[in-house]
Amino acid sequence: MPPSALPIADPAPADGLLPGSASEGATDRAFGVYLHVPFCRVRCGYCDFNTYTADELRGVKRSDFAGQAVAELEFAADRLGRSGVPHRPAATVFFGGGTPTLLPASDLVAMLDGVRRTTGVAPGAEITTEANPDSVDARYLATLAEAGFTRVSFGMQSAVPHVLATLDRTHDPDRVPLVVGWARDAGLEVSLDLIYGTPGESIDDWARSLDAVIAQAPGHVSAYALIVEAGTRLARDIKVGNVPAPDDDLQADMYELADARLGEAGYGWYEVSNWARLDAAGQPDPLHRSRHNLGYWRSDDWWGIGPGAHSHLGGVRWWNARHPAAYAERILRGDSPAVGRETLDDATRRVERILLQVRVRDGLAIDTLDADARIQVAGLIADEMVEAPAALRGRLVLTLRGRLLADDVVRRLT
User: Does the keyword Iron apply (predicted)?
Assistant: First the structure.
């Protein structure tokens, strides 16, 4: 999802054409499409994503959004072709936000059809939407499945009412089993997404949420530590003492509990904050992993559609105008909606590759590290932060301790 503050970089060209470097090695990388739907019913106090409630959208109609997104898809396909980027149909399509399911199901279907007509969708593609438990019903989910959606990621966050209230989440925890059942009946793969470390959340509260997730037997679980982002209402409440700041030690305990409980229930981590149901070989099943998010962690290519959406092709990164009105104005003019672009140098790409790939269970190839970084591997093994057997096979794979201290591992390697 797009961050709240855009980086400082060069202006993006209005014609949207890409430099030749964007196509280098493209056929070796997967291609995905991300569609950012920037609408929410309420603004959660912890969230700094590029989202807007109805009161913040005067002069902007949600009903116009699907048409604007399809127009950007047409623009993207044209510019990819004119820039000489080899055609690759989307291996993954991801609708994020915001709450994409605040739009009618027909709008999401229209946008997916737009992807099919423009970039194309590969056979067996993973097609996901995020959803709040109170934003869909059985008919809505069935409509998505009939249109080709394969997966839904529900923002459950917690099973405990007082935790949900602190996070400004509006759904009733009892609704989660209903929406999971409806999704499963429609044939959709289900992910349940959690947040831990909310002010006032105890370890027992967290255990209750984990038990509630496990009881639903989803194929995939995400669990992210609450981060206090500058400029959010939560940050202001903490600053004035209305609520306590998240406790790092408690969050570490919560992570360890999640890994243990999920492991006992037949899940394995495949990225620091993501677990998938195990396959017959005892490994996180590729069928249950988020292939779209794996594309981010592997530095694959994707085109981001919508206000504030980020894109990346071959080390060229750009981002769209943030406000829906500014985005729509550019789309209606036929200009690129992008406002900034940067081409990453080799050193930056190396650091980002380490930062992202070290987080995945498949690990980082040690022989791709420079000499100084390779010297650090023995110390990381001694400090029980990476797995010794994997290192002997040439892969740097984090231990549980290493996952808790992943930022420190990255610093030592870069």
Answer: yes
